[in-house]
Design goal:
The complex is a heterodimer of chains A (444) and B (461).
Chain A (H helix, E strand, L loop, with lengths): L4 E3 L1 H18 L6 H26 L2 E7 L6 E9 L6 E8 L6 E4 L3 E6 L4 E9 L3 E5 L2 E5 L6 E3 L2 E3 L3 E5 L5 H10 L7 E5 L5 E6 L11 H5 L4 E8 L3 E7 L13 H18 L3 E8 L2 E9 H12 L4 H5 L11 H11 L6 E8 H6 L1 H8 L4 E8 L11 H28 L3 E4 L4 H15 L1
Parallel strand pairs in A: 16-17, 16-19, 19-20, 20-21
Antiparallel strand pairs in A: 1-10, 2-3, 3-7, 4-6, 4-9, 5-7, 8-12, 9-11, 13-15, 14-15, 17-18
Chain B lengths: L12 H18 L6 E2 L13 H8 L3 E5 L2 H6 L6 E7 L7 H13 L2 E7 L6 H6 L4 E7 L6 E5 L5 E5 L4 E5 L4 E6 L5 E7 L3 E6 L7 H4 L5 H15 L4 E5 L5 E2 L1 H9 L1 H4 L4 H13 L1 H20 L2 H20 L22 H10 L5 H19 L7 H8 L4 H19 L10 H18 L11 H4 L1
Parallel strand pairs in B: 2-12, 3-4, 3-12, 4-11
Antiparallel strand pairs in B: 1-13, 5-8, 6-7, 6-9, 9-10, 10-11
Helix pairs in contact in B: 14-16, 14-17, 15-16, 16-17
Classes of the chains: A alpha+beta (444), B alpha/beta (461).
């Protein structure tokens, strides 16, 4: 028990005072010995109380919960700490452990509390949810006395709670997609073929099925058959190489979060057309997702993958090009995850910085013939520009022009190296990706 | 952990010291020990005139209790079938309380017996209270060393040499068992009244250590043994007088030792043990020691400088002692999570929002490059070319404004590059601000913007 409580510098000061009073009395300079002994006794009593309270604190019952799972909405963290003993625990300094990349929006990260005997305290705070998987908690606590003489050793109460946050779909993004895509429903390739939508009529050729004869034309004396527009199904796999550069940017508007919103919106768009869609996130040797699913199943898989991204792995990624994943591993992962039929459009997303590091892997992937790779390279420092006023935005552009130019130059270099890189800015990334997919569909 | 996993709990040194101090204070509180140095025929006196020999001799066969207080001895007496009281040369008179207690022995026990060896007559009150018919005259016989012939009813016969004995008288049915072989004077009587028996000798010296430890102690020991055996039978409780002798404190005993005559009365080994016991007792040395230290401190405290140093040293030493075992920790707050944002331009962006932008010549040149890039990208004409005015006009910019813009930008561009020195004084901040506004109008005409979210990056680059 003696090791659970330590004294602060104030105790040394009071002991020095008490010793002075006692010594003065011994030397006959003052009748202060009793006061000195009383101070020592007071400290001893205080220490004993702290030791007992510390023992009570370590046996407190703790219930933790986190509510909320949508990006941009509050994550309400709640801890109930109940004192099982008959000893009041005062004062307890409380601090919530949560990932440093999350932002507290309401309440305080810590505070001071008194836990009454056989009573409970409730600690509640709110964090702003960002997409991915996060561990929140436990509570760090330290016992103190009112006068700050003694301090208990640091304890952790309760367990960390894991929460998975889904990305929110951008309404404006969906409008953009609707404008770009040619129709909603079954997708057509602007080519005659098997399908249900009328495309055109043409003169009958021997071998044409009789049921295709266009009877209205025949009534006018022309033997013609109806042609239908060929339906096409896209296989789209989003491949996000998530290194630390994907986290550069303002809160909720980092490339990773922006791409997450774009991916989930496009996935919904493709799901509504009955396409195959999937997401593979790669970071620091780890992968999340990768399977393709048709329609809404694929959409749900994409959402699950996004809400399972572990930031700690991304933050911990080293700087070497192979740190995210080796080329061979990546190829194997892709082959394992994609179906045998149909050519898969891989939407590869990375920042300029990341793409420059991973150019070798980009080229390796491009050489795989069963895939069509579209590499979208994000200019990260343009994220957050929407928060500025008009004039400030112009100034920001001028000040960062040199960096922007270098980023574009880098993309040009990548192209020269053979990487089919498409630069995207925050405001045109979704449009460019969907345009690319619809173009592919049209050519299918 | 001890051997075999046994847990050992060790008391701390401080606890042991504290307990020792408590013990010392408690012993001190009780005062100095009072182990008296006995004088005369006391059963604990191992000196020549003591009666330790008789006590130790009888202790081997019987339960012998030295009586320091007859009242207490009576109070502790229970289940008594037979009691034998031995009194050897008492040095003080018996009080009423004493004799009443001795009478109580007779009442409590089924049988009571008495052996008295007394030349002083101090035992007479005991004999009286027990209704004995024998009395000790207390008058010393003219013969200093009478030899008596003893002939007892229990069969012991022999000669005993007495020393300064007192004659005895009998007023009833008691039997003289020892007479001076020369004068026939009775020096020993035996009285048997059934439940009470008494053997009285007019001299206690035959029971003292000097006789019983001498080479000629045989008959005396024999007489004593046979007498006790006769009076006690198989078993009885023996009470030996220890209350009627002088007890000296060590200091008085040392005074006795100075006189050769008196020295013989004291056992030197008992005296030494008493002196040692007193010497190690805290009441002997602790108060003087504290007083000594107190005096030292007081004397030192008269010197202000020395007293000051001593006080400071004492304060520090006391503080260190009190804080020695204390585990210390800085009184720091729990470190809260430091939220991080990996936003390289975030700080820059915040500064722009908070302070506004400080624009320089370099920023003007950057802007010029940006507009030039957009123009070249969209029209194929650079900003340095005069054709730019025509191009801008064709894109909807008023000719005058297009010319003004073109002139403004190129004038300051050349100035920034040092190709001209006019205007001589330029506030680049103002120039840059103005050029941003003018450029925005021109760029909007080209379908791009500096100030909109969706900017000119793709067109310019």
């Amino acid at each position: 028990m003696s090791e659970s409580v330590a004294s602060t510098g104030r105790v040394a000061a009071v002991v020095l005072l008490a010793a002075t009073l006692i010594v003065l009395d011994v030397f006959g300079a003052a009748d202060s010995g009793v006061l000195g002994l009383a101070l020592i006794g007071f400290l001893a009593a205080l220490r004993a109380y702290n030791a007992v309270a510390q023992a009570s604190l370590s046996t407190c019952r703790v219930d933790a919960s986190v509510e909320g799972s949508i990006e941009g909405k509050p994550l309400t963290v709640e801890y109930n700490v109940c004192n099982n003993s008959w000893i009041p625990i005062a004062l307890v300094e409380v601090s919530l452990v949560y990932p440093s990349y999350l932002k507290l929006t309401r309440g305080s990260p810590g505070g001071l509390a008194i836990i009454p005997p056989r009573g409970c305290i409730n600690y509640r705070t709110e964090l702003l949810a960002r997409v991915g998987r996060h561990k929140i908690g436990p509570l760090k606590v330290v016992l103190r006395d009112l006068l700050g003489f003694y301090r208990g050793l640091e304890l952790t109460l309760g367990d960390a709670v894991e929460v998975r946050v889904k990305p929110r779909e951008g309404e404006s993004l969906r409008k953009v997609l609707l404008e770009i895509s040619r129709s909603v429903g079954l997708s057509r390739a602007k080519r005659p073929g098997e399908g249900s939508e009328f495309y055109a009529t043409r003169d009958y050729k021997p071998g044409d099925e009789v049921r295709r004869v266009y009877w209205k034309a025949l009534a006018k004396g022309r033997l013609a058959v109806k042609e239908f527009e060929r339906e096409s199904t896209l296989h789209t796999l989003f491949l996000v190489l998530a290194d630390k550069s994907m986290l550069y940017g303002p809160y909720l508007n980092t490339p990773l979060e922006h791409i997450a919103r774009i991916t989930v919106t496009i996935a919904r768009h493709l799901a509504s057309k009955g396409d195959y869609v999937g997401l593979l996130v790669v970071s620091n040797g780890k992968t999340w997702g990768g399977k393709l699913g048709r329609g809404w199943k694929g959409y749900r898989m994409v959402v699950d993958t996004l809400s399972n991204i572990d930031y700690e792995s991304i933050i911990g990624s080293a700087e070497s090009p192979e740190s995210i994943i080796s080329s061979e591993q990546l190829v194997m992962k892709l082959l394992a995850s994609t179906p045998s039929r149909g050519k898969v459009n891989v939407i590869l997303v990375n920042t300029v910085e990341g793409a420059a590091k991973h150019s070798r892997q980009f080229r390796k992937l491009q050489s795989l013939k069963i895939y069509t790779f579209h590499s979208f390279i994000i200019i990260p420092h343009l994220y957050g520009i929407e928060k500025l006023g008009a004039f400030e935005r112009a100034v920001y552009r001028i000040k960062t022009y040199e960096d922007t130019r270098k980023a574009y130059d880098k993309i040009k270099e990548l192209r020269k190296e053979g990487v089919k890189a498409i630069p995207v800015t925050p405001w045109d990334a979704a449009a460019k990706i969907v345009s690319k997919l619809e173009t592919v569909r049209g050519l299918a | 952990m001890g051997r075999g996993g046994r847990k050992l709990l060790l008391a701390s040194g401080i606890l042991l010291i504290a307990l020792a101090l408590v013990g010392i204070v408690a012993v001190l509180e009780k005062g100095p020990i009072s182990i008296p140095v006995t004088v005369g025929a006391h059963p604990f006196n191992r000196g020549p005139f003591g009666a330790y020999s008789i006590y130790s001799m009888l202790s081997s066969n019987y339960t012998v209790t030295p009586v320091h207080n007859w009242t207490q001895a009576l109070a502790q007496l229970v289940n008594c079938s037979k009691a034998l009281i031995i009194i050897v040369s008492p040095e003080a008179q018996y009080t009423q309380k004493d004799v009443e207690s001795i009478r109580g022995f007779r009442n409590k026990c089924e049988e009571t017996a008495l052996i008295i060896g007394d030349e002083t007559g101090n035992s007479n009150r005991v004999l009286e209270t027990l209704n004995s018919t024998i009395r000790i005259s207390g008058v010393q016989s003219p013969n200093p060393h009478p030899i008596i012939s003893v002939d007892t009813p229990w069969g012991w016969r022999g000669l005993l040499v007495l020393d300064k004995a007192s004659t005895l008288t009998s007023i009833g049915a008691s039997t003289p068992i020892g007479r001076d072989i020369l004068t026939g004077e009775a020096y020993a009587y035996y009285e048997d009244r059934g439940a009470f028996k008494a053997v009285v000798l007019g001299d206690g010296s035959i029971f003292i250590n000097q006789v019983l430890q001498s080479n000629a102690s045989g008959p005396y020991k024999d007489f004593l043994s046979s007498t006790v055996r006769h009076l006690c039978g198989g078993e009885c409780k023996i009470y030996i007088e220890a209350s009627k002798y002088q007890s000296l404190d060590p200091k008085a005993a040392l005074d006795y030792m100075r006189s050769p005559q008196k020295a013989a009365l004291i056992d030197p080994s008992s005296l030494l043990a008493t002196i040692i016991a007193n010497a190690i007792h805290p009441s002997t040395w602790l108060p003087p020691l504290l007083n000594y230290f107190n005096n030292i401190v007081l004397s030192l405290s008269r010197d202000v400088l020395f007293a000051g140093i001593l006080m400071i040293f004492s304060i520090l030493a006391l503080t260190l002692i009190l804080m020695r075992r204390e585990e210390r920790m800085p009184d720091a707050f729990l470190e809260d999570v430091r939220e991080v944002e990996w936003y390289g331009y975030g700080e820059f962006s915040r500064r722009i929002l908070a302070e506004g932008a400080r624009l320089s010549k370099r920023d003007f040149l950057t802007l010029y490059t940006m507009v030039d890039g957009v123009l070249k990208s969209l029209t194929g004409v650079g900003l340095d070319s005069e054709d730019a005015v025509r191009v801008l006009e064709s894109r909807g910019v008023e000719r005058a404004k297009a010319r003004e813009y073109w002139g403004f930008m190129n004038k300051y561009y050349r100035r920034a590059l040092g190709k001209t020195l006019w205007p001589p004084i330029v506030f680049w901040g103002r120039v840059s601000r103005k050029s941003i506004g003018l450029s925005e109008n021109v760029l909007k005409a080209l379908g791009v913007s500096l100030m909109e979210v969706k900017g000119l990056e793709e067109k310019a680059l």
